[in-house]
Amino acid sequence: MSAAPVTTHAPLDEWNAFLYRVPTETATDRPSSDSSTPLTGNTLAVKDNIAVSGMPLSCASKLLDGFLSPYSATAVQRLQNAGMIVIGKTNLDEFAMGSSNEYSAYGPVRNPHDPAFVPGGSSGGSAAAVAAGLCDAALGSDTGGSVRQPAAFCGLVGFKPSYGRVSRYGLTAFASSLDQIGVLARDVRTAAEIGRTMAGTDPYDATTASDTPGTPWDPGDNPSIPSNRIGYAASYAEGLTDPIARRALENSVDHLRDAGASVIDVELPSTDEILPIYTILSAAEAFSNLARFDGGRYGRRIGGASWWESLAETRRDGFGAEVKRRILTGAFVLREGYGSRIYNAALQARDRLRAFYDRLFSQIDALLMPTTPGPAFRLGSIHDPLEMYRWDRYTVHANLAGLPALHVPMPSEGLPVGVQLLGPAMQEPRLLRIAAVLEAMGGAR
Ligand code: GLN
C-alpha cells in the first residue's frame, strides 16, 4: 500500500487560519475588471472547501492533500470580476463538519480574541483571518451554522443568504439541500455588498433562484426600520445559561423598540426537536456526497490488491473521525427498514418546520434569536460529539427552512457575543437593514 506522504503543515500565521497563501507578488496584481466597484481592491480569504482555480482545495482533509482546483466557484469568479483579490485559502473543520475548527487534518485554528479559545467552526479559519485583520472579508460555507457560529465567536458579521440565492457551483458538497456560501465581514455593509455580488442565477447550479437579486442590498448610512414587526424567541432567550449572551439579546430588543420596531414574542418549536432533523438529513446527504472520494478521482490514493481494497484503505486513512461518524450515521439512516423510517420521519419534520416558518413570516418581518448558547469555549474542552452538535441548535433552523440569516455582534466585555436575525426567503435587503440598525449599537470588533 502506498500514498504520497501528507504535506507537513507548518502554520502560516499565528492562528493557523490559512492553509494556503497566494505569494505576495501575485496577490497584489489587480485583477482585470472593466469598472471599479465598492469591492475593488478589497482582499478576500476563501474557505478551503470552495474552489479557486489553480489553488489547493483540501477541505482540510488528508484525503485531498495536494489536490489543485481546475476551476473557480461561481461566487469567487463574480467577486474577482468585481475587483476583489483572493489572498488565500482558509482552514476549516474537515469537509465543513464541526463547530470548533478542531477537526481539521491541519491542526486547530485559534481565536484571535484569545488563543486559548476556539474560533468556532466550521469556517473558523475564515473568521480568524478577518478578526485578526489579515483580510477585508472571507467566504465560508453554512450548512448548519458554519458562517454564523464562527462569526459569533470572533465578533464579526456572518451572513448566510437564502437557499438558492448564491450558486453552490464550486462549493464542495456536504449536505446539498442545506449548503450555502456565506460571508464573514467586519460590517453589515461589506457583507451585503459581497452577498449581492455573489448572488443570482447560475446555469451551473439548477437550484439557484431565477429572480435577480434586485434592489441594492447596502443598508445605507442611516438605516431605519419604522413599523417593522420583529418576532422575538423569548423562550430561547430564557434558555440561555450564559448571562452575557442573554443580556446582549435583551439589549438588542430594547434597541429595536427604540428604533421604532414592534417586537412581538413568538413561540418556536423546541430546539430538541429541530436539531435531530438536521443531524439525520445532513448525515444522509454527506454519506452520499462523500462517496465520490474514492481515491480514483481526486487527491490521495492508497493502492491495494483490488479496487475495493484500495477504496477502503484510501478512505480509512484519508478521512478523520468526525467525517467517518457522519458517513456511518448517513449509511445507517438510509438503510432499508428501521434506518429509512428515521430518514423519512426527518424529511417530514423538515416539511413541517418549513410550513411553520411560512406561517410565521406572514405575521412578522424578521425573527430575533440567539446565534449560539454562549461565547467561544476553550480549545480541547468538548470531547462528546453530541455536546458539540448542541452548539448548532439555534443556527440549523435557517438551513432547514432555506431562510436568510445573519449574526450581528453586540457590545460586550471579554469574548464577543451577539444575536441572530432570520428573515423570509429571498428578502435579504430588509434583513440587512434591520441588522444595520443593531450594528449601530457598536458591537463589532
Ligand atoms: N456545525 C455543523 C455541523 O457540524 C454545521 C456545519 C456547517 O454549517 N458546515 O454539521
Q: What would your notes on this structure say?
A:
By secondary structure, this protein is α/β, with parallel strands linked by helices. The protein has a domain at about 20-225 and about 370-440: Amidase signature (AS) domain (Amidase signature (AS) enzymes, Alpha-Beta Complex), CATH 3.90.1300.10. It is about 35% helix and about 10% strand. The chain has 14 helices and 11 strands. The chain has an 11-stranded mixed sheet, with helices on both faces. Helix 3 packs parallel to helix 4, helix 8 crosses helix 10 and helix 8 packs across helix 11 (about 340-360). The longest helix has 23 residues, at about 340-360. It is globular, with a radius of gyration of 21 Å. Glutamine binds near residues 144 and 146.
